[in-house]
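As described in the Methods, two query proteins were run sequentially through the folding procedure within a single session, without resetting any intermediate state between them. The first query and its resulting structure tokens are shown here.
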Amino acid sequence: MVVKVYISGISGNKEVKKRQQRVLMILDSKNIGYTTLDITEPGKESDKEYMQQNSKAKDSKYPLPPQIFNDDDYCGDYDEFDLANENDELEKFLRIPVQNGHLNGTTSSREGSTEGDQQVPQSHEELGRIDDQLPEESTLDKFGVAVEDDYKMEEDTKPAEEGDGEQEESGREEEKEEELDEKENDSDELEGEE
């Protein structure tokens, strides 16, 4: 059984292009084998005709790509594919046999495997127990990841002197006043020359 995705390689419709890319991306991410059939390529008129005759049109006269088949069995269009993916029923939608939660030798996307998985702490008490087991120079960050003291962010070690900010601020004000005085003097001199 081969999953076939009928696509249009030269579609001017951006929505069709996005939907085709999403279907192929999801199939790739789940390691589901498939074949694409570009109905716009020269010599593929029979594929186009087959897709149009065996698919269901929703909002248009002819069904728009992507259309998904399993061999010659029609599975559905993009909307049905996307709904099946969201409901974690993609294998059922594609009519692919699933054995022990595995699809084509890989684990289904939402079914966890216990081989080599790290457990994520579920409560603050569990985080505390894990933290107690760490060496003294390590602590847990807010995500439950061990962080050694050497890697903690260093804070500014320069002690703040009192009044520094006030002195800088008053110095700036004095500079501004001097500049204004100079400008006034320059304008007075220009007026006097006229």
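Immediately afterward, the second query was submitted; its sequence and tokens are:
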Amino acid sequence: MNTSASRQPGEMASAAQQNGEGRAMVVNGNLDDAVNGTASTSLDWEEFEVNIGWGTMRGKIRGKGPRLMLGVHGWLDNANTFDLLAPHLPKDVRFLSLDLPGHGRSDHFPPGFIYDPRGYMGAIRKTVMAIGWKRFIYLGHSMGAVVGIMYAATFPEDVAAFISIDIIKVWSLTPEKQPAAMKKYFLQLFDNEDKASQPALVYKEEELVRRTMDGSRSLDERGARILLQRGARRVEGGTGLVLTRDLRVKAYFIGFITLDEWVEMARAITSPTLICKASEGHEYEKKDPEGLKAMLEGFKQGCQHFRYYDIQGKHHIHLTAVDAVANPITRFLDSIKELGHNLG
């Protein structure tokens, strides 16, 4: 039953309306409990949803606060991306891990909407306004961190601190390359719209786990299964799994803002900032050392409290090397609390 059908914009689901208590930490075996929404968890997650007008944003929330923290996942991932990291967060943090539009269990954008960081930023802003969050810590991985740079620069009054996992320099294009990139985006978008109108592909469980690992090039089996627990559902009759994400999110969307503009956004971020960089992360950053340097200098120029850590591992380091990521994050959160920053 769709419990959000009669709910007004800004109204959250009651406990009785929410979809269970989260998900099981499945490492081996099948995903049945998780994809059917019957799994339990030792992490005390509660399902979250709020109507923001065009549709419903969903996620999962844990902790009592009073510090508020928003987690935003990467491209094609979902709110489960922080499952291993969440238990390491300080006990005074209330942590909301959000499914971006078209990902996980959040509604898909209506026809005509464009999936790109600006659209995601707008959905996040409407979400936090709807639930009354005035000031919070923003934690983003990959695309979630890209959106975070834009959000922290645009709405600095909202962001008490910004944490980026494996994003420093956003993929950007020079102006002369923009027309071809825009054409590529729309052609892919239209193609994916056509595909989305057709029956979804059905995968065997092990095949989908393998495809998720291969597609990411940075996930291990445990991480892939954790993401699929929220990112897939079992088809009627139990013959296989289908992905829950909107096919339109796969359209090429990056590069529409120049490097100079991204540097100005980094300079506009005034909140305490932490960057945890994977040693084997995005190759495009390594190919532009001057751009990388410019972004780092921009971050340092804008905020009064900046920390940077190189961490051994691939792009999904928060799922494959969680202790190495959790340690600098908890130290950072402790340090800004001691400095007396207003954290919500």
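The beta strands are 46-51, 56-62, 67-72, 93-98, 136-141, 159-165, 232-234, 241-243, 273-280, 306-314. We note this only descriptively and draw no conclusion about the first query from it.
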